[in-house]
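C-alpha cells please, single chain.
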Amino acid sequence: MAAEIKEYIHEGLVNIVGGCCGTTDEYIAAYSSLIDGVVPRIPVGKPDCLWLSGLELLEVRPENNFVNVGERCNVAGSRKFLRLINEKKYDEALSIARQQVEDGAQVIDINMDDGLLDAEQEMTTFLHLIASEPEIARVPVMIDSSKWDVIVAGLKCVQGKSIVNSISLKEGEETFLEHARTVKECGAAAIVMAFDERGQADTYERRIEVCERAYRLLVDKVGFNPHDIIFDPNVLAVATGMDEHNNYAVDFIRATGWIRKNLRCSCQWRGQ
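Here you go.
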C-alpha cells in the first residue's frame, strides 16, 4: 500500500498518512521514507468571488455579468411541472431540468411548495433523482422554499455547493441568525430578502437599511463569507398605473447600486 500512495504524496495531495486497526509497525514505517522532505498539501486559498458547484465549478465574477437560473422546476410557476410531480412522473419532470441545462441554465431552481404536496418529501426525492443524472447534476441547485424544514431537507441531500432561496429578517434576528448558521454549516450560499419585522422593504431607504442590517449580522455575528451573500432588494410591481408604485423600479436600481458599492457581497438577485 505504501508504494501505491507514493504517487499521491508526491503530487501534493496528502496532508496525513497512517493506518487503521490491524496496521503493523512495519506498515507505518514504510511511509517514513516516502514523506521525508515532502511538503504537505497546501490548501487552496479562499475564493475572491462566489463559488457554486454541482459536479462542476461555477465561478460568479463581475465579468460574468449575470447568471442564468432555470426556474421551470417550480410547482408554483409551472403547471406542467406541478402536474408531473403530482402524478409521480419523475422521469418527465427530470426532462424539464435536463432541457434547461441544455438550453444554458447555469443554476437549477427547485421549488415544491404546493398545498397538496408533501414538499419536504418531494424536494428530497427530486434532488436524489437529479444527483443520479450527471448531465443535470453538473450545475448547482437552488433550494427554493418558504418552509425552512423543506430547505433543510434539501441541504441534507444536495451535492456540491448550492444556494438557499431564501432567508430574511421577517421572523426577527434570532431566527435569521439560526437559519444563517445552518446555511453556513452546510456550505451553501444564501439569497437574502430585503424583508424584516416591519415587512417587505419598498423604498430605497428601507431597502438599503434592511440589507445593510442583514449583511452586518451575517458577516459580524455568523462569520458568513461575504461572497456567499446574494441580496434580493425586491423589484416589486412595475407599471401598474398606481401612483404609489411609480418609483419601485427606480428605487430598486438605486438600491442595487448602493449594495454593490457599499456591501462586499457577491451579487444581487432578481427573481421572476
